[in-house]
Amino acid sequence: MTPATESGLALPDGFLMGASTSAHQIEGNNVSSDWWAMENRPGSFVAERSGDAADSFHRWPEDMDLLSGLGFNAYRFGVEWARVEPERGQVSRAALAHYRAMVRGALERGLTPVVTLHHFTSPRWFSELGGWTSPDAAELFAAYARTATGILGEGVRHVATINEPNMVALMHTLVRRAGRSSGDSPGGRREGAAAFDPAAAEPDAEVTRALIRAHRAASAALREAGLGLQVGWTVANQVYQAEPGAEEVAAAYARPREDVFLEAAREDDWIGVQAYTRHRIGPDGPLPAPEGAATTLTGWEIYPEALGEAVRHTAGVVGPHVPVLVTENGIATDDDGLRIRYTAAALASLTAAMRDGVDVRGYLHWSALDNYEWGSYRPRFGLISVDPHTFARTPKRSARWLGSLARAGRLPEAPAAAPAGVSSAG
Ligand code: BGC
């Protein structure tokens, strides 16, 4: 185990400290994707369109310059399937070259790339075929993964097949419930993230099975390439907390929503943990946030300790042989001091889990940039703000603070005298 120091936990060798993004949320003009089609359909339930997003399709070198200049050594970003294969079987050589340049650009700047192949958006043609429930879904996704090895071969080690498959399967249920009459495709969040309630439904069982098949097929394709890729997927950890007497209800509630996706990662090279808040479960199911609890711009209870609890739970389900990468953790707020306090407390809970032996290999904050939060630009998760008109980037104080931890190679501890929580740090 890493030795304790007065100023925190020394980062283990090779620990990744950085930030995360996804392609659709920052690139802009992802016109061949199903989300773009949904956003731009007359009468769509999506409140705000992604449009130019943060224009990172063109400005990625500046984004990476900023991240490495801040002191980070890792950057998680997405490859967009709809750009790589805008029509079935038609691969864009220009898109491959674009993402190859991004991988090289990250490595040149000392940023270890962590690359996601699917982050909520699919090519339009794939959704029109029926998406994940189409009979060929696993093979189509594996074929894309095989194509993507032409990008990953530039020096990527960590690749995530599908981001938050549990949310993808859940959204499927929500959209189906909302009625296909609106013409909207699976993958959507109704009226933006604020109205999205993960407690409201159970992931679609058929989509769950299809996603696991697709993950396995893509993982096999990636390993067959012989590039030494470390393959995993990233799961939304909802930190289901049982109220006294509700342990069995909570376990039954968590299984289809989270654990089944973690169990599917037992043969993987790593598992991505994405944690923001908790969900309390009583004897009759999910409970609202405690009376008077502070909430974020997405309406989530501010509960930074979720991170430590999520990595402990994940390690318990996948087993000690699968290392953990925190691939998302953050807070939607306009109060950057709160972002620092939340993140310090979240990191302290991570430190405690690492001290207890959980094998954590990295922390990637959500998000590098203020970005398109699936239907709205209002919730701001970024360490770096982006002017929506000029696209000018300005690192926030939180970015400098987190970067300085990365530089110092230290993770904070919980302050001894203060209660855990947002009021305790910063
Ligand atoms: C997703 C991100 C999203 C973030 C905050 C995760 O569910 O992977 O795309 O922006 O949470 O809502």
Report what the structure shows.
- By secondary structure, the protein is α/β, with parallel strands linked by helices.
- The chain has a single domain, classed as Glycosidases (TIM Barrel, Alpha-Beta Barrel).
- The chain is 38% helix and 17% strand.
- The chain contains 13 helices and 16 strands.
- It has helices at 23-26, 34-39, 56-70, 81-84, 93-108, 124-128, 137-152, 165-178, 205-224, 247-263, 306-318, 336-355, 397-408; strands spanning 4-5, 8-10, 16-20, 74-78, 112-118, 158-163, 230-237, 240-242, 270-275, 279-282, 285-286, 324-328, 360-366, 384-386, 393-395, 410-411.
- Strands 3-4-5-6-7-9-12-13 form an 8-stranded parallel β-barrel, surrounded by 8 helices. The protein has a 3-stranded antiparallel β-sheet with strand order 1-2-16.
- Helix 12 links the parallel strand 12 (324-328) and strand 13 (360-366).
- Helix 7 packs parallel to helix 9 (205-224) and helix 8 (165-178) packs antiparallel against helix 9.
- The longest helix is centred in the middle third of the chain and has 20 residues, at 205-224.
- It is globular, with a radius of gyration of 20 Å.
- The two termini are 27 Å apart.
- Mean pLDDT is 92; it is low at 1-5, 180-196 and 422-426.
- Beta-D-glucopyranose is lined by residues 22, 25, 163-164, 167, 193, 236, 274, 328, 366, 373, 381.
Summarize the structure.
The chain has helices at 23-26, 34-39, 56-70, 81-84, 93-108, 124-128, 137-152, 165-178, 205-224, 247-263, 306-318, 336-355, 397-408, and strands spanning 4-5, 8-10, 16-20, 74-78, 112-118, 158-163, 230-237, 240-242, 270-275, 279-282, 285-286, 324-328, 360-366, 384-386, 393-395, 410-411. With 426 residues, the protein is α/β, with parallel strands linked by helices. It has an eight-stranded parallel barrel, surrounded by eight helices.
